[in-house]
Amino acid sequence: MPVADVRGVRLSYEVVGESGPWVALSPGGRRGGSEIAGLARLIADSGYRVLLHDRRNCGASDVSIGGEVSEYEVWADDLAELLRQLDAAPAFVGGASSGCRLSLLVAMRHPEVVRGLLLWRVTGGEYAAKRLAFNYYDQFIEMAQRGGMAEVCESEHFSGLIAANASNRAKLMTMAPEVFIAAMEDWKRYFLEGADLPVIGAREEDLVKLTMPTCILPGHDQTHPEPVARTLDSILPNSELHDSLTAAEVEAQRAAGNEIIYERDEAVAPIFVEFMTKVAGAVRAGRA
After folding, report:
1. How many alpha carbons lie under 13 Å from residue 141 in its C-beta half-sphere?
2. Which of 53, 74, 105, 221 is 20 to 30 A from residue 4's alpha carbon, by CA?
3. pLDDT tens digits for 177-230?
4. Is residue 96 classed as helix, strand or coil in its secondary structure?
5. pTM for the complete prediction?
6. How far is Cα 286 from Cα 148, in angstroms, rounded to an integer?
7. CATH assignment of 3-125+199-284?
8. Largest Cα span, the chain
C-alpha cells in the first residue's frame, strides 16, 4: 500500500477505483481501512474513487500517542491533509461509528474538503461513551500501569500495529509509561465529555452549521442507538435519513446475541451511491 507523510506521521492508504468523484471512508473502532474494502469496491464499481486509509494508531500507519486535542480531532486533521495531498478534495467523507465521528469533525474543522457526508452507525449516549472509553483508553492505561510499555506492545491491538509496521515497536518502547498514560487520560477525558452531546464529540451549535448534503443510516444497538441518528438528522440542516436494515434483520442479529448490529455492504452501497448521484445532479442543476 502507498504511504503518505502527513503531519509528521506516515499514513498507509489505498485508492479503490480508477476515476470518478472522490469518496473517503473510515471504519469503526481502531480498525484499518481494509475493514471496509468490500463496501469501497461496491461504491467504486458505480463510478467513484474511494480513499481508504489507516488512521494513526490503526492498521499499518505510524503510532503517535498524544497531542493537545482529542484523538478524533487529530484524525480529522490528518484526513483533511491527506485529501489535499492527493488532490481529492472536496470529497464525500463518511464512516461508521468512530469513522462517523471522524467524518463529522472533518466537516466541522475543514468544511472546504467535504462535498457531502455519508454517516452510518452514529454513536451517542452514556452507555456508548463508557464502553468505548474503556475499549480505546482505559484498558491500555491499566496495561501501562501494570506492565509498562512492554505489556502495551503485547496487547492485541498494539501487537497488530507492530506486526503491520515494525517501526511501531520502537516508538512505543521508547515512550515513558507515565507519558503514555497521561496522553491516554487526556484523550479519555475529551471522549467522556461528549457523553451528553447529541453525538459523541460534536455540539449542537457546531452541527447546525454543517450545511453540506448528508446521508445518515441509523444504528440499532446500545452503542449506536437509533434515536441518536434521528436526533442528528433533526439538527443537520441538509440531511436525509435512510435505513439499510429491515426490522427482521435487526431482530435476527439480536437473537444471535450480537452486541453490535451490522449492515450488509450490498445494502449500504446503493443508498450512498443514489445519494451521491442526487447531490451531483443537484449541483449540475444549480440547486446545491
Report:
1. 15
2. 105
3. 999 999 999 999 988 987 889 999 899 999 999 999 999 999 999 999 999 999
4. strand
5. 0.95
6. 58
7. 3.40.50.1820
8. 61
